[in-house]
Amino acid sequence: MPDYDQSPSLQRDQTNDEMTTRLESGPETKPEPFVPNMDGPEIELAADYALANECLEEPERDVWKTIKSIFTRKKKKEQPDPEPEVVEKVVKKVKVVAVRKKTTVQSPETVKEPESSGGSPTTVESTPTTPEVTKAPETTPEVNTTPETTVEQAPEKTPESSPKPVTPPPLNPLQQVQKEIRDGHADKALELLKTQTPTSRTTVWSGLNNGERKAVTDLLSKGTLGDGLLKALFDATPNSDLAALYKLFDVRFGVKVGQTKSTSDTGADWDAAGLRRCWAVLKDLPEEHVRGNAWLEHWTRYQAGGSAGGYYSKRDKESSMGYDSRKIDAKNGAADRGDPLYKVVRFDKVVRHEVGHAVDVKVGGSAYTVGNVGGGNWEEHGRPKLQLVETMVAASGGAISKLKTEHKALVMGAILKAMKDGKPEDTKPNIEKLDIAKGDKPELSSGDLAKVLADPVVTTSEISGTGKNPWYKAPGQGVDLGGRHYQASYGKTWVSYDRSSLARKVSTYQHRAPGEWFAEAYATYFQPDGDGKIGTLLAARDPTTKSWFDANVVPQEKKEPAPVEPEKVENSTPDSGGGDPGKKG
């Protein structure tokens, strides 16, 4: 058994039976633990300065702790004895570093370092002011492995104890963008996206998570990015990230995307399919009609089944749509065979139609539709009044117009009541309840009463009154009263137009109201033909209106209309395609 260093700090308690047993004996199946000669102040110095961290790998540090515990009488019984060859290797390393440390902490004197296996001792001179160490020649010393020979100082850590640092691989484009976002530099991330190739940009943008995309899109505003780059990011955004789709849509078209503002409809969030389809349509409309239109600020959605429908609110400057995503490719049925809008994709047509309402306000489209033959020569009568019924009776020239004055007044009053009440079905019963039509000797004979009930004005009240939607359901879209059709367009609001304009209709829905006439003409103008050209479909059906649009709508030469007091356009655009009388527009 080797001798142990008897220095005070490392003196072994030879009377400690437990320690002696641990050192001098062991399991019969293992050789006696190897404990090298730990004499000299070097080991004491190493213990004092905990030099293991300077020269040992992690496993070797544990061995060194065990060796120290033996000499400081702190070794626990359960600690295993290290392998002899490992102990020898660790002690040699520590002694080399201990000698080096000793030269810098002792008082000034000449210190001899261990001899190398092939040369003479090296003398190190120390001075009181600045300790200097004269190193051995810069040749790689060989370590003498015999226990009696001290290992020469190793100026640098061996590869075994100090591996070379590994240079991390360069970041790929996605990682570069993510790093900038994590570091709070979303603006720099945006600049990186701008410089990437289209393929790389698509990969990167789709590879970000929702929060990372939000950090970038929060920086966007009108003019931040070109339309092409906005479209690329929009296309690369996953369908699940609606927040990013909303924001990119907002920036591109200058509208706020969201749920309808109407209190009479149930709002619904847009889905990716609807927004992507809207983008594809809106991008082909004139810039002034969408992003540059002060009368279009909100692009909203409401809950609705079936094919697409929509409405426009002048008060809220809002275009709203309702649709079933599963029927987004449904064909338009609100047109007759041969009409330009017959069987076009209804969703796309409704998008153009709702923008058309905002353009109508912007360019003053009513100047063309109201009181102008080219635009249908519309007249807006408002809520029913006796004057309207008198006009209809005069235009009809039927049996009512031939009654006695007092009888005529009573019959017209009965018709007006049905119109005011919004109950077309009450028209005939109201007349039959008149005193002049009752009793044993009524003032109106049964024959005269039958003629009155068959008068075209009575028929108009019945089939074109509130909720009857004659543009869809009535034969010929209404009753001819002196060359005009009279009808309730929205609720109890009445309008009329030249019957002759039906020959130039682009759809059946066009003849609901002046605003619908303009919006359907607008949708037709921008509906691409088979060759992808616009304007040709409207020109073929209504060349007069096509020319007016060329001059007043497409170039945007007409000045903005004078500011008006904001108000909701009641029932202005219920382009639902289903004739729902309660749908507002």
Commentary on this structure:
This protein is of the alpha/beta class. Among the domains are: 8-124, no CATH class; 173-241, no CATH class; 384-491, no CATH class. The chain has 23 helices and nine strands. The chain has helices at 17-24, 41-49, 52-55, 58-71, 84-105, 173-182, 186-195, 198-207, 210-217, 227-236, 242-253, 272-282, 346-363, 366-369, 386-396, 405-421, 427-432, 446-453, 456-463, 470-473, 514-525, 536-541, 543-552, and strands at residues 111-112, 123-124, 256-259, 298-302, 309-313, 318-322, 379-382, 484-490, 493-498. It has a four-stranded mixed β-sheet. It has a three-stranded antiparallel β-sheet with strand order 7-9-8, with helices on one face. Strands 1-2 form a two-stranded antiparallel sheet. A hairpin with a 4-residue loop joins strand 5 (309-313) and strand 6 (318-322). It is elongated. The N and C termini lie far apart (104 Å).
The radius of gyration is 48 Å
Q: What share of residues is helical?
A: 25-40%
From the spread of the alpha carbons, the general shape counts as elongated
How many helices does DSSP assign? 23
Mean pLDDT: 81
Question: Which strand order spans the largest sheet, edge to edge or round the barrel?
Answer: 3-4-6-5
Structural class: alpha/beta
- Characterize the biggest β-sheet: 4 strands, mixed
Amount of beta strand: 5-15%
Outline the low-pLDDT stretches. Answer: 1-31, 105-151, 557-585
First and last CA, distance? 104 Å
**Total strands:** 9
